Structure formats: structure tokens, C-alpha cells
Amino acid sequence: MASKAPATGRLMLGFRKWYYSMCGFNKLGLMRDDTIYEDSDVKEALRRLPENMYNDRMFRIKRALDLSMKQQLLPKDKWTKYEEDIHYLSPYLNEVIRERKEREEWMKK
User: What membrane topology is annotated for this entry (predicted)?
Assistant: First the structure.
């Protein structure tokens, strides 16, 4: 059974890359974290982002909106690749969620 683990890992990676490509946001130059629904936790995480990361995010979103309105895609060489898509917001979001849960626990006492 141990011999099937690497093949399963490669298969899952292939599926992730295929799914990433099929979602389509990468064809507009967006990253995965650019597409997260902005609830109160995400808004707080965005507030904590360094200014240059926030500005990069806003540029990508505005460019994607412009392309979407024109019903165009970026040239293929400018698409966001699976390997280049970093989860820049996740550390901040995890911290905000952890703080909120800790605050909720504190208020229960």
C-alpha cells in the first residue's frame, strides 16, 4: 500500500492544478486570496496587510474588473500560475480568526 501514496500525491497535485486552471480567476491575473468573500474577519485581515501587498491586491482586482467588463482575458504568459499563487492573506486571516475565537471564549467567562 505504501507504493500507492506517491502516485496518489501526484494525482492530487494534477487535479489541483487542473481545478485551479478551470476556475478561471487566474486568467484575469487574480490569486486565490483575491477571490475570498470579504466578511468582517477578511476585512480586518486586509487592514493588517502591508501597504505594498494591499496595493498589489487592489491592482489585480481593478485589472480583473476592467478585463471582465471588456470581456477579455490576459495574454497566456501573464496568467497567474498555480506555482506562483501564494496565500498572502491566509496568515493574517488565521490570526484574526484566532483572536476573535479567543475574544469570544473570554466573553463567555
Answer: Peripheral membrane protein
Q: What is the largest CA-CA distance in the chain?
A: 56
3-state helix, strand, coil in the chain (%, to 5): 75, 0, 25
Q: pTM for the full model?
A: 0.82
Q: Are 93 and 45 in contact (CB under 8 A)?
A: yes
Count of other CB atoms within 10 angstroms of residue 96: 20
Banded model confidence at residue 1, pLDDT cuts 50, 70, 90: very low
Cα dihedral sign, 84-43-41-46: positive
- Give 4-24 pLDDT, tens digit per residue: 556 678 899 999 999 999 999
The radius of gyration of the chain's CA atoms, rounded to the nearest angstrom, is 18
